[in-house]
Write a structure and sequence with these properties.
The complex is a heterodimer of chains A (424) and B (143).
Chain A (H helix, E strand, L loop, with lengths): L2 H22 L1 H9 L21 H6 L13 E6 L9 E5 H17 L7 E4 L7 H13 L2 E3 L6 H11 L3 E4 L1 H14 L10 E4 L6 H11 L2 E8 L4 E7 L6 E3 L4 E6 L13 E7 L10 E7 L1 E2 L11 E2 L4 E2 L4 E3 L2 E3 L1 H9 L8 E8 L2 E9 L9 H19 L4 E5 L14 E3 L5
Parallel strand pairs in A: 3-4, 3-5, 5-6, 6-7, 18-21, 19-20
Antiparallel strand pairs in A: 1-2, 7-8, 8-9, 9-14, 10-11, 11-12, 12-15, 13-14, 16-17, 18-19
Helix pairs in contact in A: 1-2, 4-5, 6-7, 7-8, 9-10
Chain B lengths: L2 E9 L4 H11 L6 E6 L3 E7 L3 H10 L4 E11 L5 H11 L4 E8 L6 E7 L2 H10 L3 E3 L1 H5 L2
Helix pairs in contact in B: 3-4
The chains are: A alpha/beta (424), B alpha+beta (143).
Chain lengths: 424, 143
């Protein structure tokens, strides 16, 4: 779509959604009143900056159905966020919302090359988590064959992958590597199966992990992004050019703000992603602070799509660690570790405070390739990792080598940081 | 005449050595000699066993990180200064010793020393020149 037309469409949709949210959701009526704002004040896309932000906290206060903008009889489905930090956020979908979700997920899967001939093994969990059903609806819209195997039961996953000749898989990046590990143990060569692409998301990962996945599974590994508060997976997806995720901005309007000043930042600058749903009926979100750290890029993409791209998520504004006053994102440590050849991408960061001083310990799994019978060589390796981390974050971290497969592997989101400081 | 040695990575965690030895015991692997090198965080268990390939397989199956490499086993006269002459031979040839450990075999009057150097071939030559008795795998395992 030409940019001019897209902007006009976004503007019209924004005005409509602002009015709907204001009319139907008491929360928005109050937040607009507090900001001395009326829905008709929002005329252009730039006016969006006048709308107050909304965060998970406000959404939780509306638990369970307080944020819905339609009567319950029009809600046909609900999902919730994981609720690991308190009451979950409940998302409500109308029939049109499910339609919208199917549409954006179909676009996402198509970017990975999915057609009606493909067999999609959907290893995202089915249930309250949006991953499973999101992919499911998108697959249906395309006409592909969806195998709703859901998460877990890795041996069964491998069996199905072999027997059905699965062509596309959808799961978390860490689970795909776990699959590869189990396949190796079982003597199954994943590289020789029919897999051609995978849509990996629901947790942060890096280019190094992508290389590792592509090498071990012999497929095109693409990044998918989404969140329950907005719709679930299908907010943005990478095209095979792998230069950022195209945001489906005709439905989801992105902004980047500084998490500290809350000012909107120019394109290309890294900050927190804020999203506004332009077409959601069940639960419109106006300027939702995602806490995800990224940057927007509008240079044309070689794939031909005009949709804005967001960079791979590199952190969460709330997992930002402040260690001895220095801001550290776990991905910086991850990158430093993965730059060392032969190290498995499994690690854990432990932050403690002893005698009023923050200490960082990074546990890294020893690999067969790097193990030596000589202490000197292992110590050299350990120091090399420490140096690489110090260069990346500007702080000394203690590296401990632990036994392979001893760090927790989760079948959902991998827990990388354990903060043992009791700061609050 | 090099001898195969098995090394196992040990995380500094309670009961880990026990687990390694338990796995070997369950498979009836007898240990001829062992040494543990340790740092504050981890250790390396080094083993001489009659069937190193089988031991490696068993340990890997048990989830351990294992490496096989060559060491030299020699006989050292059981008297003061016995080891000195051996080390002199290596020093004269400018060969560094990474580590060594000793044990006594029940059917043997001399002590056995396992040596790991950076350059095993050079070390073997030097030991031969210094008239040190180097043991073959067969001799070592049959003790």
């Amino acid at each position: 779509m030409p940019i001019g037309e897209l902007r006009a469409l976004q503007r019209d949709r924004l005005r409509a959604v602002v009015k709907r949210a204001y009319d139907m959701v008491p929360y928005y009526r109050k937040s607009f009143a507090d900001a001395k704002l009326r829905p008709e004040d929002i005329k252009s896309l730039d006016d969006i900056r006048r709308i107050p932000f909304i965060t998970k906290t406000e959404l939780r206060q509306g638990y369970p159905f307080g944020m819905f903008a339609v009567p319950m009889e029009r809600i046909v489905e609900t999902h919730t966020s994981s609720g690991t930090t308190g009451k979950p956020v409940v998302a409500g979908y109308t029939r049109n919302d499910i339609d919208l979700w199917s549409e954006v997920m179909a676009r996402a899967l198509s970017m990975a090359g999915a057609t009606e001939k493909d067999i999609i093994q959907n290893c995202y969990g089915y249930g309250l988590f949006t991953g499973g059903l999101g992919v499911h609806y998108g697959g249906h819209r395309i006409g592909a064959t969806v195998v709703p195997i859901s998460a877990g039961n890795t041996k069964k996953q491998l069996e199905i992958m072999l027997d059905f000749q699965t062509t596309l898989i959808t799961c978390t990046p860490s689970y795909s590597l776990y699959l590869a590990e189990v396949a190796e143990e079982e003597g199954v060569d994943l590289r020789k199966l029919s897999l051609k692409a995978g849509c990996f998301g629901a947790e942060m990962w890096t280019e190094k992990i992508r290389e590792e996945i592509e090498r071990r599974l012999n497929l095109l590994a693409l990044n998918i992004y989404g969140l329950t508060e907005i719709i679930g997976p299908g907010v943005a997806h990478e095209c095979p050019e792998k230069c950022g995720l195209h945001i489906f901005e005709d439905h989801f309007y992105p902004e980047i703000i500084s998490p500290e000043t809350l000012e909107v930042l120019p394109d290309g600058e890294r900050g927190e992603l804020v999203l506004t749903t332009l077409t959601r009926e069940g639960m419109p979100m106006l300027r939702f602070r995602t806490r995800d750290i990224t940057a927007l890029r509008r240079e044309p993409c070689s794939c031909g799509r005009t949709l804005v791209r967001m960079e791979r998520i590199t952190g969460r504004s709330d997992d930002m660690l402040k260690i001895r006053g220095v801001i550290v994102f776990p991905y910086q440590i991850e990158k430093a570790i993965l730059e060392m050849k032969g190290i498995e991408p499994h690690y854990q960061i432990i932050v403690t405070r002893e005698h009023h001083l923050d200490e960082v310990e990074v546990q890294v799994e020893m690999s067969k390739k790097l193990f030596s019978d000589e202490i000197r060589k292992i110590e050299e390796l350990r120091r090399k990792i420490e140096k690489s981390i110090e260069e990346a974050i500007g702080l000394r971290a203690k590296v401990s080598l632990v036994e392979p497969k001893s760090l927790p592997r989760s079948e959902g989101k991998a827990k990388r940081v354990i903060d043992k400081r009791q700061l609050s | 005449m090099k001898v195969k040695q098995i090394s196992v990575f040990l995380e500094n965690r309670k009961g880990r050595l026990y687990e390694v030895l338990n796995v070997l015991a369950a498979e009836q692997i007898n240990i001829r000699a062992l040494s543990i090198a340790d740092t504050a965080d981890f250790g390396i268990l080094r083993l001489i066993v009659p069937d190193p390939d089988a031991a490696k397989r068993i340990l890997e199956k048990g989830g351990f990180t294992v490496k096989e490499n060559n060491v030299i086993a020699i006989e050292v006269p059981d008297r003061p200064g016995g080891l000195v002459s051996v080390l002199k031979a290596l020093q004269d040839a400018d060969i560094n010793v990474e580590y060594l450990y000793a044990f006594v075999a029940k059917s043997h009057k001399d002590a056995i020393v396992v040596i790991r150097t950076e350059n095993n071939d050079g070390a073997l030559k030097a030991l031969k020149k210094g008239e040190v008795k180097v043991l073959s795998s067969e001799e070592l395992y049959s003790m």
